[in-house]
């Protein structure tokens, strides 16, 4: 077994308040390079909450998340942002593309933030990414001119912009028809297989979940499958 | 062309709300424009007034008075005594500066000083049926010309003509026209001492300061001493400085040395400077009020954008933009509005000032003139620009901070 890319050590998340709400608790999970993991469970079981914690978008109230061997417990907000930028990519149920930017412009946003290469080179890379996802001829369009499935693929291209180690997707096919949903999962499977990118996706769809290499089942904020093998 | 990402984001935000942006920019522009025009107007007027005052009057005047009333001999003799005496009649002294000649020649030795003795006193000028009271100032013309700019203000005749005519008098244009007297006319000057002197108009002046033009006349010092029955007395020493701004210190030194009340031009016009301060306060509050309204406009537009774009902000944060990036994006929008507004305001201010400069009218009052005095100063443009940048930065900062602090998880959950 190769070293874990993402590792959760006893993480829990409690929302403070007069009546504290426990989103997830006691999660031990270790996910390696190139794994394609489905997080499943009933509605309200804490799937999204777990994904935000693994993606360093939210902080656990107990335990710690370790990314590529680095403990993130002590990292400040700016360091977490830097890790999200260079190592992680998010895809949500809603595409969240910026409406004023073209398809190409949206894909280039993470690249421009990371910087390091001339604008022209970024443009070429973004275009290649879009070609790869079958969107080569859509680059100059605005998101509003695309179909739902195309938008979600643009969102995936944006998540892949900085060649992340981990893609985190929260019901990425929730708004899509069966065919588009299958396309998205095919992309994920190919990414994991060909580039060693780790893909963690939340899904309700049994058929799609069955195509992944591993399933993690949540009930009431707790893992009911062993998270560490 | 590679624009920085944050600038790109900021531009799409404000270009997405063109009308609101234009209104905000105009608000700032009007504030800056009015400030520039008002500052030019007020500083121009104040500058003109100060120049006129400095030129028309001596920089320092030594008078035959003391700041503290003289101690009466009885009080000096029984200092701290238990007896209180009422109804003491002060000794009736001959007023005037004692040893004036010595003081004048001593002060004349100081570097950078021109000194002129004078005796002023009230007179009634009578010409035909017209009676006008005025202050008759006895001067030594060749000294006086070195102390005031009166010679430059002469519209007819010269100060030195006072000596050439038998009993010459030089008076303000306003006074002459009230009397109905012209050059060469003879009139009677009557003093409180009861002396009547027949004088002849040998010159007319116009300083622009109405109170002087309508209330002052000059005669030779010797004649003034006769008129007031105060032989060899002078009651003022008038001084002009090379360094105008040193007047306060020099006056204080003279007063410390000789004891006589010595007034600098600043002290003499204290009241006017108070009025100027009030004027400036009114100007800054007016402009401040306009800027506050403009700042509210900026606050409003940026708050709206922050609210509308909360999803974009959330996704940008999930991508890896920092809180500082988000804050900067919105701060930039405020600063862009402020900067464009400032530049537009400069143009408006320049236009307004030029417009004011082209207006002609005729007003009396403290000074008489036919146009606005305008001070063209780059500093007004800088101050106006700074005003607008600070106002827009503050107005943008508040919603920008809110945007930066928003938790992306809450927004992403809510948007699903
Ligand atoms: N801000 C909040 N305040 C109160 N309860 C919350 C809040 N956010 C989440 N929860 C609760 O926490 C639990 C876990 O939520 P989470 O969104 O992680 O579940 P989920 O498994 O993703 O559900 P779904 O399948 O419906 O997306 C749910 O019961 C939810 O109601
Ligand atoms: Mg969910």
TrEMBL record, chain A:
One of its GO terms (biological process) is lipoprotein localization to outer membrane. InterPro entries: AAA+_ATPase, ABC_transporter-like_ATP-bd, ABC_transporter-like_CS, ABC_transpr_LolD-like, MacB-like_ATP-bd, P-loop_NTPase. Coiled coil: none annotated. One of its GO terms (cellular component) is plasma membrane. Keywords: ATP-binding, Cell inner membrane, Cell membrane, Membrane, Nucleotide-binding, Transport. Belongs to the ABC transporter superfamily. Macrolide exporter (TC 3.A.1.122) family. This is ATP-binding protein. It comes from Skermanella aerolata.
UniProtKB/TrEMBL annotation, chain B:
Belongs to the ABC-4 integral membrane protein family. LolC/E subfamily. The keyword rRNA-binding does not apply. Residues 21-257 form the MacB-like periplasmic core domain. This is ABC transporter. It is found in: Cell membrane. Pfam families: FtsX (PF02687), MacB_PCD (PF12704). Residues 287-408 form the ABC3 transporter permease C-terminal domain. It is a multi-pass membrane protein. The keyword Transmembrane helix applies. Keywords: Cell membrane, Membrane, Transmembrane, Transmembrane helix. GO terms for biological process: lipoprotein localization to outer membrane. It comes from Skermanella aerolata. The chain crosses the membrane at residues 21-42, 281-302, 335-359, 379-398. One of its GO terms (cellular component) is plasma membrane protein complex.
